[in-house]
Amino acid sequence: MKNTGDPQIVKRINRGVLLRLLRSEPGLSRAQLASQSALPPSSVGQLIGELIEEGWVTDVTSDSASGRTSSSLYISVRSRGLIGAELAVDYRRVVAVSLLGEVLWSCEEPLTNTDPNAVCAPLASLIAQANAALQARGMQLSGIGVGLPGAIDDFSGVVRFAPNLGWRNVKWSPLLIDALYQAGLPRVPVYIQNEADTAALSEYEFSEGDRPDSLIFVNCGIGVGAGIVLNDRLFTGTNGMAGEIGHNILQLNGTLCSCGRLGCFEAYIGSRAIQPDSVSSLQDAGHDLGVLMQNLWTTFDPSVLVVGGSSCMHYPDLVQAASATLQLYALSAGVSAPQLRLARYGLQAAAVGAAALVLHRLFRPTTQRAHHVSMVEPASPDELF
């Protein structure tokens, strides 16, 4: 990896800075970008020219009452697109989105075989369909993200721990890349991340209005996980295990969990443990979910807590009970709990967030070394962005 003094890395950093500014404040002029980025106006002009030519940015000109022409810059929503995929225990879901998070195409299929080799070709086929949908709109694919229910080592891309899929230390990235190549996908970067992490990025990268400085997404389905964004970065831990909250212990020597431990939160609030026709079951699970969110709150002190996944989206009583428990803890401590809300993208949160993962990595090239990147075909790191 080249050092950060390399001109190409500096250029990618500066491009990312400008794109993030335009995403936060659409309609800025070149002069305003230069002022807010502290980059020389000549550099801003050159970089914006390249970004317009490549379809990342669009320039809207208008005439004022005085007859002067003004120029406003926006992230393009018509030239480039992203593809996000979620590989879950019993389904695969793929979406195509714009650079600002508008879902342009989506599809979901059941998953009956979780063998690491068997899941790749069908997933790649759906991704190819999503790319065809982008091409039909005249849009160019900029990258592919995939979220799955497990801990992924950021540096190697190895899936360390995915108990609900039955995977441990699986080198899955090469299998997926080969399937994407066989499906005819273009030469683009491919990123793999935990599904709760990607769900968090759907809320963070595609946020409406001011972006929160910290956010935790609690994903409740068959498994239970959390995606954590702190200080503008996805927090994944040393081995990609950060956010595996479903395997925190709720009860000593309690119910057996899929991971082999006893008493994990997942064994009590995972969808396999919930009896949807039982009010007491939902209330108990909701209380336990509230305990879990209280622990996340006191550990990370986030601005926003978001809940999603099939259990939270299908059973509103579960979320209401969790919220009530969280508020009781806040009242007891005499402090205000963080904002708690449902996922904006609903059941598509992890897939949309996998697309957002592409932007999260490309907009922050100085963290490139720490995150595993594959290409549908081999490429130099300078070709990524």
Q: Would you kindly provide a written description of the structure presented here, covering whatever features stand out?
A:
- With 385 residues, this protein is α/β, with parallel strands linked by helices.
- The protein folds into 3 domains: 7-75, Winged helix-like DNA-binding domain superfamily/Winged helix DNA-binding domain (Arc Repressor Mutant, subunit A); 80-199 and 372-383, Nucleotidyltransferase, domain 5, CATH 3.30.420.40; 209-343, ATPase, nucleotide binding domain (Nucleotidyltransferase, domain 5, 2-Layer Sandwich), CATH 3.30.420.40.
- It contains 11 helices and 16 strands.
- A 6-stranded mixed beta sheet has the order 5-4-3-6-10-16.
- α2 packs across α3.
- The longest helix has 22 residues, at 279-300.
- The protein is globular and about 70 Å long.
- It starts with 6 loop residues before the first helix and ends in a 10-residue tail after the last strand.
Q: The biggest beta sheet, please?
A: 6 strands, mixed
In total, how many beta strands? 16
Compute the number of structural domains: 3
Distinct helical segment count: 11
The fraction of residues assigned to DSSP E strands is 15-25%
CATH superfamily of the largest domain: ATPase, nucleotide binding domain
H/E element sequence: HHHEEEEEHEEEEHEHEEEHHEHHEHE
**Helix vs. strand class:** alpha/beta
Unreliable stretches (pLDDT < 50, length at least 5) are: 378-384
Radius of gyration from CA coordinates: 22 Å
Average pLDDT, all residues = 90
CATH topology of the largest domain: Nucleotidyltransferase, domain 5
